[in-house]
Design brief:
With 450 residues, this protein is of the alpha/beta class. The chain has two domains: 100 residues, no CATH class; 315 residues, Rossmann fold (3-Layer(aba) Sandwich). The chain contains 18 helices and ten strands. Strands 3-2-1-7-8-9-10 form a seven-stranded parallel beta sheet, sandwiched between helices. Strands 5-4-6 form a three-stranded antiparallel beta sheet. α7 packs parallel to α10 and α8 packs antiparallel against α9. The longest helix has 30 residues. The two termini are 59 Å apart.
Length: 450
Amino acid sequence: MTQVRPPGQRRRWRLRLRGRRAARGRVRWLIPGLGVKRWFVLFAVCSLVGAFSFLHLTWTGPLHFAATRWILYLNALTEPTVMPLWMVGLIVTLLALVGAVTSMVMLNRSILKAIGNDPNTALDQIHQTRTLSRGARVVAVGGGTGLSQLLSGLKAHSGHITALVTVADDGGSSGRLREALDMIAPGDLTDCYAALSDSPVLARLLLHRFHRGEGIEGHTFGNLMLATLSEEQGGLAGAMQDVHEVLKVRGKVYPATTAPATLVAQLSDGREVRGESQLASALGAAHIERVRLEPPNLPTLPAVVEAIREAELIVLGPGSLYTSIIPALLVPQVAAAIRASDAPLVYVAAIMTEPGETDGLALERHDEAIMQHLGRKPDLLLVNQQSVPSDVLARYAQEGAVPLTSLGISTRIRPRVRLAALLEHGPTAHHDPQALARVLLRLVERRTRW
């Protein structure tokens, strides 16, 4: 049974809790790198210098009489036998300094309230801004759930994230909007915007899917919003800046190409399959030999090329190899920029094989497929080393999926393989966003040791 505290005790408990939170908040101002303490120190030093300068002015100038009266007044407050006169002056000086700092803090709180910011979260915002501004410049390429999970982990460490998203999806809500409005597929863009948004409310709204309503059933709010902006601006290329500002995105999200594209797969039995949504069901006993986009010479945004040029790390995946990662690499300007980049290129291998796409495809074949379509080998292949729980394995086995491991790899790629604990605890075999982000950023720090 829950214990009910008396009203007086509850009030004392709330006051004590509020006091602890305030104390923790004051201590957090001492965190290095906020760029705040230096100004408090400067304010205190200037206040002391100003006090001594004013003392010099009054003692040597026409206000000498006022200074004398002030000293006599302080002396009268405390007998010399109880407290020396210099100590009285020290106490008054410290009290004045505390009052000045308090007034400055309260002024800042009033200003923050006036512009609609919560003073209690101001410290978090300052810390995030200062910390994230020093984060690594990362370009993440892919689509689907894997990319959005990676972004949700990276955004806690850097504000210089650029997501380069495939837009060849032609199924579900994205496919219907593509067909109706002749636009690029918005689905994976929506997932990435939600992952990088600083507003939990907006992130939740973006992913909300309508389950009723003629014409909007099956669509997500984010897809409809992007479709609206695409119509208003004559394409999403002109709406990118508006989207980033409206959604308070930490970083940037760009489509790999701004033109509608169709994924075409060449199969081992000689057949061609058009459309991403048709691929899995059409494979049968065959496997994918190669994929391409139609039309072939697709444009990309200048901001995409610039982000790749400035990147300190380029990450491929995690995600579907042939339908999420490689399609983004088939845009000519994107591929050329990645090949010319000095940044390390890291391929994050999926934890499980994907039925209908990578069945029986070993890690080495993933590496070869990237080289075949991009013209550059990944510098590192990052693979999960944790064992997948037996109940999760059994569930995936029913669909024909098995773990993608580093077992049996040849000496050709072994030096480029890195193993790490990347599995997220849960009912699915997904990457842990925070663990994956930490491993990738450590790779950036240790680049000189490769």
